[in-house]
Amino acid sequence: LNSEVHYLTWQEKPKPRVLAMERDFIVVGSPRLNRVDIFDAGYPIWHSNYPTGVASGHTRARQLANCPNSKIPITLTPPSGVGYNGGGSWQYFGKAVAIHNSRVIVGDYLMDGLDSATGIGDGGFLIYDLQGNHIRTVREYTQAGLGYGMGFQVAAGCGRIIASYSTGTHTNKVVLFDIEGNYIGDIKPKGSTTPVEMGREGDMVIAENRIVIGDPYKAVVRIYDIDGKGINELIGTQYQMWGRKIAVGCGRIAFGSNKGTLPGSTGNSNFEVRIFDLNGNPINVIDQDPIIGNVFQAFGSDIAIAHGYIFIGNEHARSDAGNIYV
């Protein structure tokens, strides 16, 4: 599973979340395996060398023996008649996952396969409990939007679920549901900038009674309350890529920002991390230069906020190795 996640995040862009965590549970999506696994926090993730097999000394049996209190993971697969289990060849079950309030949400933006006329698929998401029981399947036609790949990304929190679209005109909105999958409404941008990529190329986060959605190619981060009412739009300039990764916590919103220069051949450039309050008022900017110098990096490639600290990832800090800054 580790190698599958690595392969997805390394090869595919954009990068929906295939990992999610809440309290004592970790959810891992493996769409190429057409499965999602729920682990408890004490379960040892199996180390492997993709695609040849198990690393020396790190067998699954040995790791289980070293963690006798760990639970065997629960594996989720699509219900009969959906996606690959419905006879199709597509495998997108688990390409986006979220967990909240004992519910696991699994996005599948080609749930019913490709439409032969449009070349676009009908998508949606599935809801499970932590024991692996299928609770509900939510298809996009339940809210009159056929064939645009809903479920490309999903996020959950504060009693809400949001799902974005993979393509078509529907990328100008994100759909809002309660945690049981009941449709609440569409979340649309406040401004008139088009085309809009709501939650397709950028991140989506629900926390602290806020829904925050990134649109990096427009350098826009949009802030809503949990009912989808717009609060603020944070707008950068070209190439700043605001909102590719977003963190919300401790009364703050943070995201990485290209400092406005054209990215280099590796796709990296000089970055900073911008910090705002929950209403979008600026708090501070953390510049990479005093920390690691003015060099091509990926400072802010991922961000987390917890316990009064901001954790900043830099996946290219040292050649092919990365650093985390606190």
Describe the protein:
- The protein is mainly beta and 326 residues long.
- Helices cover 6% and strands 42% of the residues.
- The protein contains three helices and 25 strands.
- It has a four-stranded antiparallel β-sheet. It has a four-stranded antiparallel β-sheet with strand order 7-8-9-10, with no helix packed on it. Strands 11-12-13-14 form a four-stranded antiparallel β-sheet, with no helix packed on it.
- The two termini are 28 Å apart.
SSE class: mainly beta
Task: Give me the Rg, rounded.
Answer: 20 Å
- What's the count of strands? 25
Spatial separation of the terminal alpha carbons:
28 Å
Strand content: 35-45%
Q: What helical percentage do the residues reach?
A: under 10%
Order of strands, widest sheet: 1-2-3-6
Q: What kind of sheet is the major sheet?
A: 4 strands, antiparallel
Counted by DSSP, the helix tally is: 3
Overall 3D form: globular
Mean pLDDT equals 75
> Uncertain regions: pLDDT < 50 for 5+ in a row?
1-15, 44-58, 263-268
SSE pattern, N- to C-terminal: HEEEEEHEEEEEEEEEEEEEEEEEHEEE
